[in-house]
Structures are given as structure tokens and as C-alpha cells.
């Protein structure tokens, strides 16, 4: 079941010249996903299945902060969605969601990463959305494309 993308979201995408079945190969194990998704942050756990756990960390203001959640949608060759929340003491009142979608396009696959669910944060939604919009780039997606197209 696909995650519903809310109105407040950050979206980054790239076209990879390979079918979704080939792109999905890079989602099947911790080692394969950490090779491309672990760019800019460290991936500690990724269990590629529904209800699997995801754990990451990133340096913020000189401090290593952990965050993660649970895989809530796992549809091979189409989508993986996970709840994301900072660990205490930086946790939000509710998690946001990351969704990675694969869609066939031309002779390849459009790979999209959404960070969404900011509207769930109430009055803090606007500042959080702006911060992530300004901070996210596509280094993860460029690395994924280079692994697949080499």
C-alpha cells in the first residue's frame, strides 16, 4: 500500500537508465542500500521488509544525532516508506515520513525521495519544511545512479 504524500513535502528525484527491477536490487540488503543511501549520514540499520527498522545518525552542530523508525510500506520495485523521528532529546511529538518511489519512465526509472508529513508537526511545520528543503541535495540519488549505470 502506497504512502499518501501530504501537501508539505520535500521531493528530490533522478532518472536512472535501468528498469525498476534493476534499481530495486540496491534496496535488498543493508550493504547495498548503505552504499548509496548512506551519503551525508551514517546508516546503522536497515531491515528491507515491512515493519523493518531503520536507524541512522548525522552530525548536527558538532553533535552526532540518531534518528530512524519503522518501514510502513514495502512494495518491491515500487516503494519503500518509513517513519522518521529524532531520538530523545531531539524527538518531534510525532514522526515524519520518508518515501522512496520507483516509477518506470522512458527506458529507465524515475527515483523519487519524499520527506513528508510535516503538517503533522502543527505550528513547527513551516520551519521544519524550510530547513529540510534548504538542506537536502541529491547526492544519494547521484550515487545510486552511478552504481547502477556504471
Task: Explain what the structure shows.
The chain has 150 residues and is α+β, with helices and mostly antiparallel strands. The protein has one domain (13-143): Alpha-D-Glucose-1,6-Bisphosphate, Chain A, domain 4, CATH 3.30.530.20. It is built from 4 helices and 7 strands. The protein has helices spanning 20-24, 30-37, 125-135, 139-149; strands at 9-16, 42-46, 53-60, 63-75, 79-86, 96-105, 108-116. The protein has a 7-stranded antiparallel β-sheet with strand order 1-7-6-5-4-3-2. The radius of gyration is 15 Å and the shape is globular. The mean pLDDT is 94.
Features:
single chain; 150 residues; alpha+beta; Alpha-D-Glucose-1,6-Bisphosphate, Chain A, domain 4; 7-stranded antiparallel sheet; 7 strands; 41% strand
Topology of this structure?
Elements: E1 9-16, H1 20-24, H2 30-37, E2 42-46, E3 53-60, E4 63-75, E5 79-86, E6 96-105, E7 108-116, H3 125-135, H4 139-149
Antiparallel strand pairs: 1-7, 2-3, 3-4, 4-5, 5-6, 6-7
